[in-house]
Each structure stands twice: as structure tokens, then as C-alpha cells.
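Support reply, case 0932

Customer input (verbatim):
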Amino acid sequence: MKIQVIRGNGNIKRSDIISALVSELQTALALGRVEMDIGANWLTVTQQVIYDSNALVGNVTESFDRLNGAAWRGVVTSVQHGLNEYGLVTELEMLREPR
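Our regenerated output:
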């Protein structure tokens, strides 16, 4: 499948994504959105959470920042599962939307 990545009024274009592994439209759309978000001045954030088998690249997540008392949204760009002293964990790399 070939994904043509265009955003805005059609004036913001990124390189085409060509992948033989992407065969479903929803997956292709999520991959295109993540690629566009990478170029939109989003902040990269890494967060460890309790093991989450449903975490997928392209998911939109919401996280609550206790220090600032506000929630923020981001797009998952990487998922890794592991084990630490507390048990199974999932490490998410996300792009946090600009404020």
C-alpha cells in the first residue's frame, strides 16, 4: 500500500510512505497521521505504565500531569514491554501535541 501524506489545505506534504506490510485502510491512516505529527513540532515524551497489551502505535492517548494539574494528549510512536522491580510494564514513546 502507498500512503500519500498531505495535511492542512493540501499545502503541507511529506514523503510518501510505501509499505508492503500495511494492508488495511485504518492502519495506513494511523501511520500517515503519525508521520505528519512528527513534523508538527510535537514534543517526544517517554512514559512507563502498568503493562498494557492493548497499546499500539498510532493510538491517541491522554495522560494526566500531576505536577501541573492538567491532562495532555499524544500519539503513540513506539511500544515496548518489559519487566522491572514492580512487575510487567509498558514503555510508550509518544508525541505530545503542542499547547
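We compared this against your earlier run and they match. Two observations from our side: The mean pLDDT is 80. The first helix runs from residue 25 to 38. Please reopen the case if you see a mismatch on your end.
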